[in-house]
Specification:
Radius of gyration: 16 Å
Shape: elongated
Strand content: 25-35%
Distance between the termini: 32 Å
Largest sheet: 4 strands, antiparallel
Number of helices: 3
């Protein structure tokens, strides 16, 4: 199964839990097939500066249906260096969610471009 464009985002939070409205908004994106989640992990920095990394499949209180089982064998896309960079940007007592997702909305368009022998010359994300 060829994947569409994959993105990695990292969201920093001052608390140690994600609010329900974030999880619901993410589930809506998955249910509408706008994105397909490849991987999610959490990097927590304790009050003493200790780093704890948790994969989503290690968590019991998370809706695992958000992850697509057909692409769960993909691993290693979030590197240790990525995690170290994230951890260095965290304040003590905060955490970050790191998510890899496929832009499934773009897959059909990508296929049409490739079928026309087109090539991607530039792709940039402009934050808010």
């Amino acid at each position: 199964m060829p994947l569409g464009p994959i993105e990695m985002i990292c969201l920093k939070f001052p608390e140690t839990a994600i609010k329900d409205d974030i999880a619901l908004a993410l589930k809506e994106l998955v249910d509408r097939k706008t994105i397909r989640i490849v991987d999610i992990l959490f990097v927590r920095k304790g009050g003493d500066g200790e780093i704890l990394i948790t994969e989503i499949d290690e968590m019991e209180d998370v809706d695992h249906s958000l992850l697509d089982a057909s692409i769960s064998e993909i691993s290693g896309l979030i590197s240790e260096e990525d995690i170290e960079d994230v951890a260095a940007q965290l304040d003590n007592g905060s955490f970050a969610a790191v998510m890899l997702f496929e832009n499934t909305w773009a897959t059909t368009f990508r296929d049409a471009v490739l079928n026309a022998n087109g090539q991607l010359l530039l792709s940039e994300r402009i934050p808010h």
